UniProtKB/TrEMBL annotation:
InterPro entries in the cross-refs: LysR_HTH_N (IPR000847), LysR_subst-bd (IPR005119), WH-like_DNA-bd_sf (IPR036388), WH_DNA-bd_sf (IPR036390)
Protein name: LysR family transcriptional regulator
Listed GO MF terms: DNA-binding transcription factor activity; transcription cis-regulatory region binding
Domain HTH lysR-type: from-to ranges: 2-59
Source species: Desulfovibrio desulfuricans
Keywords recorded for this protein, A-Z: DNA-binding, Transcription, Transcription regulation
Pfam families xrefs: HTH_1, LysR_substrate
Taxonomy, superkingdom: Bacteria
Amino acid sequence: MMTLKQLQVFLAVARYQNLGQAAEALFLTKGAVSQALQELERHLGVRLFDRVHPHLRLNHEGAQLWPLADEMLQRGEAIERLFQAGGACFLNVGASKTIGNYLLPQLLHDFERRYGWLPRAQIANTGRLLELAEAYALDVVLLEGEQHRPQMAAEEWLQDEMAVVACRGHALADGVAHAPAELAGQRWILREPNSGTRAYFEHTLGALIAPYSVALSLSSTEAVLGTVERGLGITFASRLVAELPGFSSRFSIIRLTQSFSRTFSLCWHKAKYHSASMDSFIRFCREWSPTNQ
């Protein structure tokens, strides 16, 4: 008989593509993981992985099992929670860095006030979040960048206005609206290439002023702003940063004749089982706005 433990092992091996790493994640021995996987394959009568030493890569049959196994484990966990004290809810949420730094704290605060529990949350760049969602490691992701992966569902969530941020006293921060071409020759401090903010810059303002000089690519908005504050370059960031304490005493906004706005998105794997917790969180996000809290 197929067991939940076998499915748990299968999912871990599918995510890590390595028996040893899957064993570490599950706090099992490598031998126990190998045995459980062999028993599952024997029970189903098919191979679920192609063995390419030292990796195990999902084959067609394994790819078909993945979403079903994930759903079975989710339902099993829901049954356990139903009869545990308090009936705790469980959800894994991811947020890209601008959303995670400036919106997620208030969103989670308001969600807990309504529902009485908190999802697990992690912050990463857009590319990493999509990788985790594709591997069923995240239930819902809040993205600032576009996604074009066919296995992911996405819907528009919030609008975000972008701005060119410079150090206080910058020559172009004179209150006059400048054409994008006037930014030619400026040094740029930008987020890393796999981030939603960087991708949006490259496809919008960056395309208008190319070629442009990128002095530094940094993995956090805080590092970008700290570098800009010291006059090493200018950056392209969400206007949410203007809500930071002391922003006006440290930075200036360079006004442009053209406005730039992007759409934040709610995303999840199309094959992901929608638990009651997941549906509650998605419904709350659809209703929530940072301007009316």
